[in-house]
Amino acid sequence: xxxxxxxxxxxxxxxxxxxxxxxxxxxxxxxxxxxxxxxxxxxxxxxxxxxxxxxxxxxxxxxxxxxxxxxxxxxxxxxxxxxxxxxxxxxxxxxxxxxxxxxxxxxxxxxxxxxxxxxxxxxxxxxxxxxxxxxxxxxxxxxxxxxxxxxxxxxxxxxxxxxxxxxxxxxxxxxxxxxxxxxxxxxxxxxxxxxxxxxxxxxxxxxxxxxxxxxxxxxxxxxxxxxxxxxxxxxxxxxxxxxxxxxxxxxxxxxxxxxxxxxxxxxxxxxxxxxxxxxxxxxxxxxxxxxxxxxxxxxxxxxxxxxxxxxxxxxxxxxxxxxxxxxxxxxxxxxxxxxxxxxxxxxxxxxxxxxxxxxxxxxxxxxxxxxxxx
Length: 374
Known about the structure:
Layout: E1 6-12, H1 19-27, E2 34-40, H2 48-53, E3 57-60, H3 69-82, E4 86-90, H4 91-106, E5 110-114, H5 124-133, E6 140-142, H6 145-155, E7 162-164, H7 171-175, H8 181-186, E8 194-199, H9 208-219, E9 225-230, H10 236-242, E10 252-256, H11 261-266, E11 270-273, H12 282-289, E12 293-297, H13 300-306, E13 312-314, H14 319-331, H15 333-350, H16 353-367
Parallel strand pairs: 1-2, 1-4, 2-3, 4-5, 5-6, 6-7, 8-9, 8-11, 9-10, 11-12, 12-13
């Protein structure tokens, strides 16, 4: 007798190479009791084929703008034809569409999976939207206690409405990635070079400006350091202009979007993320799993992940603090190695992908008992 799986629709802007998208790629194939369909509001994205290779259907709506009415009609028709038991939305645009378009039209339960705090003045519209529409949401998911705390205190959401299910990571996968010395040579990195790496889209809230200032300062005393910047985004041109007069500019490699970020982590020594806000950083988790020394901003989201013993912290928007922290790692290599191992232990014990996937599966089982939004 063939078992018909309940369908869960996941809605996201696109499947480009980002933290949330990679989390879904790692997790959904392990939640096998359901049929997962991903609907992208705009383009399919670079990771779409990899989802399909894992048996997950990807449908692109090709929305041109927020006011593309025809796209909303396509979305409603597509989702109705799937007849899902549950709809999960990820990030602002999908949250908006799920809450304001699909939920009232289809009467299907829509659950926003909160991924970040939007804790920057630039994102005031997102915070306002959350405040104005929170009454329409019966249940939230959040990827960290810090995100939950933000929504409770800053948005005014009832704490009982938010269930925390953190990101998971396959530590064994990162353990088995070899150090590719040929990759170092291709990038012009010498055997004795110290490699700093930052994996983050080039957006203002990631704080790259301060990292570049710190790197220029470090370069004065450490001519054998390299900085790898993995990611792309709206700040790229500003950052390139920033380093035009830097003595360190030839040691800063803008590598853009990469599909081999884990291999690049493996040839690096120190992971740096000067982010202003997060949810639960997949990039930090990957660096921890690779056994790198992690230096990051002292925001609550990062402290929840690394704890008191798994990494190094510096103040946000402070290039002097960043360079000082990295200098500490460089001159205390033995202590830094111990802290990196502790970070790897934290990831292994608390965020194993199989354990996290089982929690998510149980949540879906409970929620799909109800097919209507009340």
